[in-house]
Amino acid sequence: MIRSLQAGFSRVDGIGLRMFSEDELFAIHCATLEVMRDTGLYVGSKEAREILDGAGAIVDEENEIVKFPPYLVEDAIRSAPSTIVLAGRNPKYDYVIDGKRVGFLNFGEGLRVIDPYTKEYRPSTKDDVAKAALICDALDQVVVHNRAVGADEMPGPVQPLHNAEAIFPNISKHCFIGAMNVQNFKKIVEMAAAIVGGKDKLRERPIYSTIVCPTSPLKLVATECCDIVIEAARQGITVCFISMAMAGATSPVTLAGTLVTHNAEVLGGIVLSQATRKGAPVIYGSSTTIMDLKTATAPVGSPELGMINAAVAQLAQYYLLPSWVAGG
């Protein structure tokens, strides 16, 4: 089992990076609760709205808007696990993720690759997915694997299944694979269960986690988010909620304003997960950055991305939740 060093662990005073004081974090938290209570989030799944309604949220069925009382949000934060063991196919690669331990994984998902033999810049293929997994499996610095590229030659709706088929035989570490819809998610879970010896074994040691992305601003869509969150909570599969807000486009241009939007989206997903099954494992994620005003793109190498995601990591620590943030 791998336990990384803890960033910011106070043994002696030294160099550190703190984007916000405790008071500022509390102010962001309070602003988030206000947005979730008064504005709410669009929740596209009827089943999700019913679950949230049963948990105490205020549901506007006509407009598919859900408003979250502060107690409901804070109860979900408390019930989500602070520590998760991301199990590998090989137990020696089990990775412990908690508030301050820092490990690294590869970025995903790249759309194109430079062919190592022809040097051609081309769309990625299923074979690239498999080889990328194999490379990450061999790198000690990569503690878990996120599918690096996609099987772009395969039909879009079932591409995640081909990604999973390529990754599972080539990785002995824990892996994250987005599913796109709940049907694909169930099939990927079946693959993982077949590898470990059944669904009961998978629930004991999940070798696979999934990723969902809220849609900024303030949307939890049905197919790619809510339905997967509900099923994952029921099956004991960890969900990483990765908001991809763009400051100046889909979120406010200020750092604090973007964090409030980001926080509301991620916490909305966590509330749904905990309302489905208390204690369901979740990761507070982020690939939030700015919008490049010249090109209207999301630059993941910008200094602002580093600032935003350092702040997100601090916010996750404030909530005692495991985090996953983009490093640029």
Automatic annotation (TrEMBL):
Signal peptide (UniProt feature, chain positions): none
GO BP term, example: methanogenesis
Molecular functions per Gene Ontology: methyltransferase activity
Keyword Protein biosynthesis in annotation: no
Superkingdom of the organism of origin: Bacteria
Keywords from the UniProt entry: Methyltransferase, Transferase
Matching Pfam families: MTTB
This protein's record includes keyword Methyltransferase: yes
Family: Belongs to the trimethylamine methyltransferase family.
Protein known as: Trimethylamine methyltransferase MttB
